[in-house]
Design a protein that fits this description.
Layout (H helix, E strand, L loop, with lengths): L5 E2 H8 L3 H9 L6 E2 L6 E3 L1 H15 L4 H9 L3 H37 L9 H19 L3 E5 L2 E10 L3 H14 L8 E6 L10 E8 L11 E5 L2 E7 L4 H14 L3 E3 L6 E6 L10 E11 L1
Antiparallel strand pairs: 1-3, 2-3, 4-9, 5-7, 5-8, 6-7, 6-11, 9-12, 10-12, 11-12
Helix pairs in contact: 3-4, 5-6
Length: 293
């Protein structure tokens, strides 16, 4: 080998990593090692060392493997900023769920404190009260959630027909697969003009996939930047139209946010690994752009 290389044992010692961790990261496709012909050990060249360093740093702040792949594929400040923004949005959502759970516990504790200390323990009443609290909280929190999406560069395709979704998605998905971007891409769709009217009449649908900066979009696809921002999210049932109505009805009751018609509403397509149990190849998250009231 003409390049300087480091053995797996020396690298593990230098970076405080285990050989098992390095082998796992390599199996995930983050970098490649070579075999030293004399010892048979795995060795790493300068490019692999750079990828390992990036991976080690980002894993310390719990960045997912798929997002680390996007940084390695496109080692730019913009891509690094994007994955950090995604992580911040995830942390905010998790914090909101923790706050909600704490509020549920506070309600239960408040109920307990209202009971006489030396009173008879009425187990049925306590259980009924706790069930009411959990169900009330479930009804409040299981419908729409407010999330933040970062701005995203996307490649997209538009089709018009009586059922144009698959036709719009086909060219985008085919190119994403052929460009080895499937592991990092997020897929979004939405209605475009002509808008849906009556059943059986043609309407427009656009499908897009997120792509890293620096990747050229082929001529048969178009490119734009989704602006991101606040969205009301609802996980769709099989009846997408009914789910959209549910989302908008719930949003109409919300005193904190209202619909922002200056941005596109979206449907995020999340691949379903077990379509037999759901019926469709993709789950749908419905996303309505919102702004503070």
């Amino acid at each position: 080998m003409n390049r300087s290389v480091v053995s797996i044992h020396r690298l593990a010692e230098q970076m405080g990593l285990t050989s098992r961790t390095l082998r796992h990261w390599e199996s995930e496709g983050l970098f490649k090692s070579e075999r030293d012909t004399s010892s048979g050990w795995r060795v790493y060249d300068e490019h692999a060392l750079s990828c390992i360093r990036i991976t080690a740093i980002l894993r310390k702040i719990d960045i997912p493997i798929k997002d680390i792949k996007s940084v390695i594929a496109n080692p730019s400040l913009a891509q690094l900023r994007k994955v950090i923004e995604n992580k911040i949005a995830e942390v905010k959502q998790r914090n909101a769920e923790v706050v909600s759970f704490q509020q549920q516990l506070d309600q239960v504790l408040k109920f307990f404190k209202q009971q006489p200390e030396d009173g008879f323990l009425n187990l049925d009443r306590i259980l009924n009260e706790m069930e009411d609290i959990w169900m009330s909280s479930l009804q409040e929190n299981s419908l729409i959630k407010i999330i933040t999406l970062p701005p995203m560069r996307v490649a997209y395709s538009i089709a018009v027909g009586t059922s144009p979704e698959d036709e719009a998605m086909g060219p985008v998905l085919e190119w994403i697969k052929s460009s080895n971007l499937l592991s990092t891409a997020r897929f979004f769709g939405g209605n475009v003009k002509p808008m849906p009217t009556f059943a059986g009449t043609p309407y427009g649908y656009g499908m897009c996939a997120t792509i890293p900066d620096g990747i050229s979009v082929p001529g048969h696809l178009k490119e734009m930047v989704l602006p991101g921002g606040l969205f009301a999210l609802l996980e769709s049932s099989e009846d997408v139209s009914l789910s959209w109505k549910t989302l908008m009805n719930e949003l109409a009751k919300d005193k904190r946010y209202k619909s922002d018609q200056s941005r596109l509403c979206l449907e995020e397509h999340i691949r379903n690994d077990r379509p037999d149990g759901y019926g469709n190849e993709y789950y749908l998250n419905l996303l309505e752009p919102v702004k503070a009231v």
